[in-house]
Amino acid sequence: MRVAFFDRDGTIIEDYPDHEWTGIEHPVFIDDSFNTLKEVIRKGYKVILITNQYIINEGYITIDQYHDINNQMINKLKHQGIELFDIFYCPHGKDEGCSCIKPKIGMVKQAIHKYPEININESFMIGDSTVDIELAINMGIKGFGIGVGSNYKDQNIYQLNTIKDLTSYI
Length: 170
What we know:
Number of helices: 4
Main location: cytoplasm
EC number: 3.1.3.-
Cofactor: Zn(2+); Mg(2+)
Order of helices and strands: EHEHEHEHEE
Largest sheet: 6 strands, parallel
Subcellular location: Cytoplasm
Strand content: 15-25%
CATH architecture: 3-Layer(aba) Sandwich
CATH class: Alpha Beta
Structural class: alpha/beta
Subunit structure: Monomer.
Oligomer: single chain
Number of strands: 6
Helix content: 25-40%
C-alpha cells in the first residue's frame, strides 16, 4: 500500500501562531488542497495525516477543541468526496521528550504497526515545515516541502511553491 503522509496545519488547513489557535472554531482549507488530495488518491495513494499538536499539552487548546476542528475537517473532506485513511497526532509539548513529535518517526512507526501493508519505499511525506522534511529524511522516503526553502541536499526532497505543485511529482 502506497501512502501519502500529509501534515495538517499549513498544508491542508490554515495554520496560525500557537496563541491564536485558542480562538479558532472552524478549519479554513488551503487553496487547491481538495483537488490535490483527490488527485493523490486517484493516483493510488492512501492519505494518512501526521500532525504535531503540541498546542494541546502546552495549553493553547483542549483535546476537545482538537477533535472538534478535526471532525469538521473530516466532514468537509467527505463532502468533497475525499476519504482520509487515518490520522495520527502527537499531543505532547515540545519539551516532553516523546518519540512521536516530528521530526521523530514515532507517528509513522505507529501507522506502519497498525497497517503493516504500508510500503514505505513507495510512500512520501508532504508538509510546510522543516520538521516534515526532516521526518521524510529520517524515514528515508520522498519529502515535499511547501515554501520550506531549498537548503536540503537530499535527492529525495522536493521544494514546492504550493500544494498544487505536488501532483506533477507523483
